[in-house]
Amino acid sequence: MSPMTIDSPVAGTAPATGPAPAVRLRGLTKSFGANRVVDPLDLDIAQNEFFSILGPSGCGKTTLMRMITGFETPTAGSIELDGRNVDGVATRQRDLNMLFQSYALFPHLSVYENVAFELRVRRTPKREIDDRVRAALELVRLSAFADRKPAALSGGQRQRVALARAVVGRPAVVLLDEPLGALDQKLRKEMQFELKRMQREVGITFIYVTHDQEEALTMSDRIAVMSEGRIQQIGTPTEIYDTPASRFVAGFIGSCNLIDGVADAATGRFTIPGVGEVPVDEIPDAAPGTPLTLAVRPERVRVLPDGARTEGGVHLPATLTQRVFLGDEWISHLALDSGIVLSASVPSGDAARALAATADGARVTVSWHPSDSRVIPTGELA
Ligand SMILES: Nc1ncnc2c1ncn2[C@@H]1O[C@H](COP(=O)(O)OP(=O)(O)OP(=O)(O)O)[C@@H](O)[C@H]1O
Ligand SMILES: [Mg+2]
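Above: inputs. Below: predicted complex with magnesium ion.
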């Protein structure tokens, strides 16, 4: 699939004054027949931002991207690119480029010609083509491979050719739909750093779709977490990770202990059925008795000797049921007497050695500090 790149902005519109966002969505909605797959959505993406859309399969990520590119017509709402409304404006007239979920290179063309293709179609002067293609290949560190055919490249190298092709026309916005999906874990990690470096170097707004939370956390300036056509939360990677707005977000980003219960705003305590009350720092506004979730990251949970106490901490008796060694950390499973199983992550080191010496089935105390836990709504945000 060849990317679409057009440099010229929409003809006949006044240039934006002041810093307009690269992308502005207002009430953007998409239904297929009776099936609404993107709920009315408002979103501003800043110039040069690395913005990720993260969500499970089928939540509407590609549909949202296709509306921004113009491949899909919104059911309602508006899209502005760099301050210009692009309602009814064809894809090729939008100053953007999309790298699709499944891309393909031309097998009979060299790396150089694959990257040059769109520029040739647009009859860009030869000198300029050469300058731009060489710069793009340098950016993806493939200068030495210009004469190779795609068949003689590794998967990661082919991916880089596709990236070079997506940025060679210097569009204002590049949309990337799960571009690393086909690569193995090691290559994915390498490419994540490369992509971030590249985006910084070229100063293009990136809108990046993924269902891999680690990928989103690694690369993004901001992340929108999406579920069933709705944005659940928008924030920086640390905001999303440390202060998830809902149970869905907490469970989707990183691993998290999610404990059902009810909270009493008057006493500032959270009651876990069958376990008892634990202190928490903050309780969201909710009618008394509303189901809430206490979220604690495994790396915040400490495993102490039976009966041990720490200043101001939560302490719950538990049985160590399982330990899993992951190289840089140990994950242990801890069964509270009510049957709730929590996990704790202990980085390799002294604490892990002590844990390793503890037998399965041993009685321990599970502990965390109230400030390391968060009470969040159990239901999804409306
Ligand atoms: N042309 C279409 N006609 C009808 N339904 C569609 C169409 N395109 C997408 N859908 C539906 O819209 C929903 C969202 O699809 P979309 O491709 O946007 O999901 P996604 O988040 O990109 O998922 P994935 O991570 O699997 O790529 C799905 O339920 C899908 O079946
Ligand atoms: Mg998709």
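The radius of gyration is 25 Å.
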